[in-house]
Amino acid sequence: MQQPWSGWAILLTINVVVFLLQVMVDSSSLATHMPMFEKSIVGQWLALDSGQISWLLPMQLFTYQFLHGGVWHLLMNGLGLFFIGRALEPSIGRQEIIGLYLVSGVVGALFQLGFAAVFPAQFAGPMVGASAGVFGFMGVLARLFPYREVYLLLFFVLPIRLKLHWVFWGSFAIAMVSILAAIRTEAGDSVAHAAHLGGLLYGAFYVAKLVRNGGLMRFLPGMPRIRFVSDGSAKGSAATHRRNWRKPRVVDAAEVAEGDFMSREVNPILDKISEQGIQSLSERERKILDKARSKM
């Protein structure tokens, strides 16, 4: 009980608590009838309406990420936070995963606003949900570990095994086809496909540009710079390895479970000392030992 909560657990708990408050205080925000939703507290103040931008926009870019339109909506996004968040957090850490969720949500909202400005009939309207953040998680996980295999339930019935590389491009294709279909038919639906696309692409950008430079939270004052190290060779040739976006795991002792940190980082260094002597250690390995001593 003394261990800090995981980032994905914090996010999931906030989403569930906010939904319960919606049910108890503002049940009209769960109505499928649009006029009732627009008159609710959520619809007027907290949801992001891409058709009526107001002075509340800076706040709504964040508040909409923790609101949902119903139990099914919350369940789908909650499952994404649980499964994808659990798989991703050991690689980027608690602080990074919370920052990734929030920024992915903001980028997804900006994508939705951009499409609504050009195609208001298809994309304008109130938006709530954590899906842009969940798609950001998927973008990072799939670009960090493109060859990792996962099992998916197709139509919630048929189990299939896919590499995360194909999950990423499949999600991208679904979002693009849905956007193009809405533009072609001049009729939108209740799904914020542009927000999904924005979150997914920001996840890919995060891996391509930020992961090697210490992550996202390093831009905040007082936050530690997260360092990444090699995760081993990827499948394919050396040229393929240079082109792909397989990226390192986190070595920050504050963000990695103590047992994992000892077995994954410290034990190999101790073995190296016993074989080659302490003078053989690199500067990075000496820093890892210093972090391990501070935890003991």
What's the short version?
By secondary structure, the protein is mainly alpha-helical. It contains 13 helices and 6 strands. The longest helix has 25 residues.
What this model shows, in words?
This protein has 296 residues and is mainly alpha-helical. The protein contains 13 helices and 6 strands. The chain folds into 2 domains: 7-219, Rhomboid-like (Rhomboid-like fold, Up-down Bundle); 257-296, no CATH class. It is 61% helix and 7% strand. A two-stranded antiparallel sheet has the order 1-2. Strand 3 and strand 4 form a beta hairpin. Mean pLDDT is 79; it is low at 228-257.
Q: What structural keywords apply?
A:
296 residues; two-stranded antiparallel sheet; 61% helix
Q: What is the averaged pLDDT score?
A: 79
Order of helices and strands: HHHEHHHHEHEEHHEHEHH
Give the N-to-C terminal Cα separation.
19 Å
Radius of gyration: 21 Å
Large-scale geometry: elongated
Any idea of the CATH topology of the largest domain?
Answer: Rhomboid-like fold
Report the total helices: 13
